[in-house]
Amino acid sequence: MLIILQLQRCTNFFQYLCILLFVFCFSCAQATTPITDESLLQLGNQFQKTRKPSQTRSDDLLWQGKKHQLMQQIAQQLDLQFFNCSSIESLLGTADTQVAIQSLGEVNWTSQSPNQQQYQQSKLLAYYWRQQHDMLIVACSEQQTALTGWRYLWE
User: Fold this and answer.
1) In the chain, which residue ranges form alpha helices assigned H by DSSP?
2) What start and end residues bound the annotated signal peptide (predicted)?
3) Is residue 122 within 8 Å of 114, Cβ to Cβ?
4) How far is the C-alpha of 22 from the C-alpha of 48, rounded, in Å?
5) Which residue, among 27, 56, 45, has the nearest Cα to 90 in the 3D structure?
C-alpha cells in the first residue's frame, strides 16, 4: 500500500512538473523579441511621431517625402533582421489595420513574394503612409517577421 501511495505522489509530481514546463515554454515562445538596434529604435520613434496628425505635414505625404523615406528605411531594416509581431508593434505602434489575405490585392514585396503557406501563417499588419491609399505591409507571426512590402493604389 505504501508503495502505491509513493507511486501516486511521484506521478502527481511528474504531472505537475510537466504542466509547469509546458507553461514556461509557452510563455517563452510568446515573449517579445527585444529590439536593441539603436538606429532601428530611432527610426521607430520617428515613425511614431509622424503618425500623430499634428506632426504630419503635407510634404511628408509626397512620393519620396520624409514619411515615405522613413518607412522605406524601416522596411529595409526589418527585412535584414527577424522580429515577431509583438516586437514590430512595440517598435512601430499598433498597426493601422490588419489586412485580410483575401483583400490584400497587389503588393510589391521588398525581398521575395510569399507563398500561400507563408500568408496563412502570418498576420498582415498595415501601416499607412498616405491614409488608406498607400501602406507598408508587414507579414509576421509570433515567431518572426516574414516579409515587408508596399501596397500602392497609384492615384
Assistant:
1) 2-30, 38-50, 66-80, 85-92, 116-120
2) 1-31
3) yes
4) 36
5) 45
